């Protein structure tokens, strides 16, 4: 389906975020569509984390608006955003190494069995559900929900966190550098899972430095440079070299400009 026939589930309009005088985001507008992967590209400090924190209810924008499903919305907290269907998965899967797969899958929403004083965590149901959801995303190596999260590979941890978000009905899945710490094989695995989430109609926001990973799964791309959206394009509209040049060149030029400003300030102080 093309963009024109779909409505964005999440929309940022002219969003800026200022921290104690520092402008981390400057007039950013962005549309996030169901069943699409939006890649957020940018060098260190470009504002990617700040942007996803606005999208996930962690930061309120200093100016500009957020629309959720066509309605202007102020998320009260990350919990509020999460309850509406925005799930964020951080680089290491955001799970607890000493918990079992089954327990970590249901953390905060533990299934129980029995009544009254006999009420207890339904370990069998939790383990079976977690393993089934992971298997459905193609993680067939995991068959035992009792295994500790800490014993999983980085890719498997990501997969379990994504499976959890899918199971609990995420409409928007924000993945913050999910492949950054992974080897080639593991990264490929995670990219495959991202495609599966997209095919389920979930809007995926993929934050990454890695242009190759972005180009493999992305439908739409936004490049941030120093808090501003420097470019915004659909799959096929830019070459890999153009994107790489934009990310590297833009940042280098911005750094040079900042250096020159500092130098000019110092020279002015001397005179
Ligand atoms: N709470 C805060 N208070 C002050 N400045 C902040 C705060 N959060 C972020 N910044 C600044 O805003 C700028 C953008 O930061 P942000 O973390 O969004 O960048 P990023 O693109 O995610 O970088 P990276 O890829 O390194 O994680 C940085 O210069 C950062 O120091």
TrEMBL record:
Residues 10-251 form the ABC transporter domain. One of its GO terms (molecular function) is ATP binding. Pfam families: ABC_tran. Its EC number is 3.6.3.17. Keywords: ATP-binding, Hydrolase, Nucleotide-binding, Sugar transport, Transport. It is an enzyme of class 3 (hydrolase). SUPFAM superfamilies: P-loop containing nucleoside triphosphate hydrolases. SMART domains: AAA. This is ABC-type sugar transport system, ATPase component. It comes from Rhodoluna lacicola.
């Amino acid at each position: 389906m093309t963009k024109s026939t779909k409505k964005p589930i999440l929309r940022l309009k002219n969003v800026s975020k200022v921290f104690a005088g520092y402008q981390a985001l400057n007039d950013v507008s962005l549309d996030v569509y169901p069943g699409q992967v939006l890649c957020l590209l940018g060098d260190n400090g470009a504002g990617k984390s700040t942007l996803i924190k606005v999208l996930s209810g962690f930061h309120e924008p200093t100016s500009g608006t957020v629309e959720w499903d066509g309605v202007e919305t102020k998320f009260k907290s990350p919990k509020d955003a999460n309850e509406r269907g925005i799930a964020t998965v951080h680089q290491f899967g955001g799970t607890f190494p000493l918990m079992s797969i089954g327990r970590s899958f249901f953390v905060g929403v533990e299934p129980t069995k029995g009544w009254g004083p006999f009420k207890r965590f339904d370990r069998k149901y939790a383990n079976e559900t977690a393993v089934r959801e992971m298997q459905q995303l193609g993680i067939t190596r995991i068959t035992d929900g009792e295994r500790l999260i800490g014993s999983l590979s980085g890719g498997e941890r990501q997969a379990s966190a994504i499976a959890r978000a899918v199971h609990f009905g995420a409409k928007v899945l924000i993945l913050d550098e999910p492949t950054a710490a992974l080897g080639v094989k593991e990264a490929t695995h995670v990219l495959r899972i991202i495609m599966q989430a997209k095919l389920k109609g979930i809007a995926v926001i993929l934050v990454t430095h890695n242009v190759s990973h972005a180009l493999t799964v992305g439908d739409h791309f936004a490049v941030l440079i120093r808090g501003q959206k420097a470019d915004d394009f659909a799959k096929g509209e830019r070459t890999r070299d153009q994107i790489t040049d934009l990310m590297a060149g833009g940042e280098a030029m911005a750094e040079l400009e900042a250096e020159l400003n500092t130098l000019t300030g110092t020279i002015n102080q001397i005179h």
